[in-house]
Amino acid sequence: MLPTYATVNLAALAHNLSRIKRYLSPGCEIMAVVKANAYGHGAVETAQALAQQGIGRFAVASLDEGIALRQAGLSASIVVLGALFEEQVFDLVAHQLTPVVSDGRILPTLAKAARSHPAPYPIHLKVETGMGRLGFSPEELLSLLDNPILRSPLQVEGMMTHLADADGADSGFTERQLGAFRTMLEQIRQCGLTLPLIHTANSAAIVRFPESHFSLVRPGIMLYGYHTFPATIPAPDLKPVLSLQTRIVHLRTIPRGGTVSYNGTFVATRPTRIAVLPIGYADGYSRRLSYRGSVLIQGRRAPIIGLVCMDMIMVDVTDLASVQVGEIVTLIGHQGQESIWADEVADWIGTIPYEVLCGIGSRVPRLYESA
Ligand SMILES: Cc1ncc(COP(=O)(O)O)c(C=O)c1O
User: Fold this and answer.
1) For a FRET experiment, which of 92, 125, 187, 330 has its CA 20 to 30 Å from that of 86?
2) Ligand 1 centre from 365 Cα, in Å?
3) What number does the ligand 1 atom closest to the CA of 100 have?
4) Ligand 1 neighbours (beta carbon < 6 A)
5) Are 204 and 250 members of one domain?
6) Is the pLDDT reported for residue 320 higher than 90?
């Protein structure tokens, strides 16, 4: 019996993929973003399930994430979105991972590593249009384009930028970013480089900015069943993929005046029945959920009392009838008519569902169900 586990519903993943496709024109490809352990869902299993649904391109953040997918047998294209150190380049090429280049200083090392590779080695160039993070400025791009190694042994397979405000209330910032991107795209084309893959759109842009789709889109959060649009945008029909469950490991009743958890911050104002649950901040159940969060037991909400511990939380079950040790508790998911999804948990602690999902710790086993 697993005390604490996450269930990943692959049918919901397939559903979300099919909804994303509805926004795309024929010929526009999808690069599934499976970084951060597929937002906590398990990168290998998620990528394999998406590959079975016909997805042939994946994106990760780091070299190690890419290598892990290769070692699991994924033969599809894998783009490493994050910046790389020169020392990482030979490993990158050895595993046939596609780098996103946003600093020209890495190109000679890439070219050297690529010479041991039979065909021109694909790279993507990232341009900066407003994220203020990684990417070539227009001047840097211009000075780069004459470099012959971009034609051999490297091949510029793609050009991208990162939209900073696609889920913001105002579309102006994104429109300006897309305008700047189109200008730089034109510069590249005038230099005679043909670019098979042009990509800018994350989940929010897929829905809100059709002009951002170009030839490839990069959905992450929508695959996993969430979005962060303002309420004015019609919500896409998505299904959350991950549920998080635990079981009651211990029950006790404390008298009026009794305290719970570190620093005794919870003081019972009545005889209180407490359920102890074997999940804590080391599993990604944030300490900020102390006093803010609730869980589902018997289809009803039970509030967290006392501070969230590293490995345990305590909830007040005084008002629930006949709760048993071993009973299933839902922290994310639904029980009966009630549900608590990752976006509600995020709201409780002033964050976004991304952080709640990515934070689910490595010691929480992931179980996969296909229906
Ligand atoms: C470069 C890049 N593209 C796409 C995504 C996917 O974004 P989202 O999860 O909002 O769809 C991310 C995620 O942060 C990213 O870093």
Assistant:
1) 187
2) 25
3) 1
4) 33, 81, 162, 202-204, 218-222
5) no
6) yes
CA distance 320 to 34: 39
Please report which confidence band the pLDDT of residue 117 belongs to, taking 50, 70 and 90 as the band edges. confident
β-strands 259-260, 250-254 pairing: unpaired
The amino acid present at 143, given as its one-letter code, is S
Together in a domain, 123 and 195: yes
82 C-alpha vs ligand 1 centroid, how far in Å?
11
**358 and 290 co-located in one domain:** yes
Locate 298 and state its tokens. Answer: 């018997």
Domain that holds residue 349: 242-369
Q: Which atom of ligand 1 is nearest to the CA of 219?
A: 11
Distance in angstroms (rounded) separating the CA atoms of residues 172 and 182: 15
- What does the pLDDT look like over 53-98, one tens digit per residue? 999 999 999 999 999 999 999 999 999 999 999 999 999 999 999 9
pLDDT the model gives residue 116:
85
* Count: domains in the chain: 2
User: Residue 346 is part of a domain; what is its CATH number?
Assistant: 2.40.37.10
Determine, yes or no, domain membership for 231.
Answer: no
Do residues 331 and 194 both lie within one domain?
no
